[in-house]
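Q: Hi! First time doing this. I have a protein sequence and I read that you can turn it into a structure. Is that right? Here it is:
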Amino acid sequence: MLRHVTTFMTLVLLLGVADAAAQQQERRRDGTGPMHQMQEAMPGMAMSAFSPTHLLQMREELVLTEAQVTQLEQIQTTAESAHDQAMASHDKHRDEMMKAIEAEQPNADVVRAHFTGAHDSMGVAHWAEMEAGLKAMAVLTDAQRTKIKDMRPPAGGMQHREGQGMHHPDQHHPPASMRR
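A: Yes, that's right. Below is the predicted 3D structure, encoded as structure tokens:
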């Protein structure tokens, strides 16, 4: 019974990871990929504004030179290749881990090795995106970087204002009607 529960819970977890990875691939294509997710997941890590994809989409607004466009395209290509290789490794480890879990006598060491491999591969994929943002930031002039930074929303996400819209979910304020 415990084996079935463990297998079921692992499958649910892996399906969630696989779904997230698929969504990540789709968002990367439309310019809101992993860097955007990192900004959401780690307040203060506003690197998504400097992703090569985002900067290339803003080439006219930033008045990028042809040399800058070429550099950003090279950074983007390199990052996408590294990200795709890491995701392929992740998928391989995930599949091997599932086979190990579903074995007649699951071996915890084998499961752990593939879990660690999948986890490390995902870290490599995230690093490829972050490194691309750092390299892309270095391509810009001070004025272009300032323009991007000025366009970002303030750190901390949505701010609560009396009687206006939503507040950040981490803030626990009662509705205005219940305050004195």
